[in-house]
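Homework help board

Subject: predicted structure for assignment chain

Our instructor gave us this sequence and asked us to write out the predicted structure in token form, then describe one feature. I got the tokens but I'm not sure how to describe them. Can anyone check?
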Amino acid sequence: MIRHLNCMTCNARVPRGLRTGALSLLVETAQGLVLVDTGLGREDYSRQPGVLRVLRVATIVPLDPHEVAVRQVVRLGYSPGDVHHIVLTHMHFDHSGGVPDFPHATVHVHRREYEAFSGRPRSWMDLAYVQRHMGHRPTMRLYDDPGDTVFDYPAIRLPFEPAMWLVPLFGHTRGHCGVVVETQAGWHFHAGDAVRAGAEPFGPVWLARMVLGPHCANLLRFRAEHPEITVTAGHMPPAFFSHNAQRPAVRRGASHSSDA
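My token output:
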């Protein structure tokens, strides 16, 4: 089962009707819960990173504490410790801020992305990394050699069942990847910030390419040609989360973190 969590609402000031939520996937696997991207973390609310403060000038970010991933995990009937793994499409603050809320989870990310996060900034997109999000030094698993393909994309098989892959979609960041999950309910291709949620462009083609990278047009074409596959972006409209709302899990003997 895949649950869709909105882990950071961000609404445009212009146009006012453009509203989005930062999508995280909570996936039940044989290896425990896997969280694909995390949104903001609890500390980001009390110590807003500079890039978030800048974003809140340009857009409307309500900072609703109920959207923190760890709180949503608890509300769904799990313990934070049930999240054994976190897979990151990339390490921008709005996708990795919640990593410290799951301190024992192993973090899976492309090696190029981790090197971009750890090194000196080389582009304006690198300014969205926040070093303290990895300050607790989580266990990292880094990937770099696609040895597989999925949907004709080079892919890296991840160590989970149901089957999951990292799909290199470099451009938005140096190591940005999509994540593909195969479940009994069908295929889910989470393209992260390499594609926009809607079919309509949010600006000139050159701007979309500069912000999202070079894969947006191909991914939009793939989505149109494969309606049987769920293709999601890193930031989805509110209606997506309402339509995909999930009931809490039914668990026996579940322990809950009282401070989540």
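Reply (TA_rk): Your tokens look well-formed. For the description, you could write something like this. Residues 171 and 213 are 4 Å apart (CA to CA). That's the kind of observation they're looking for.
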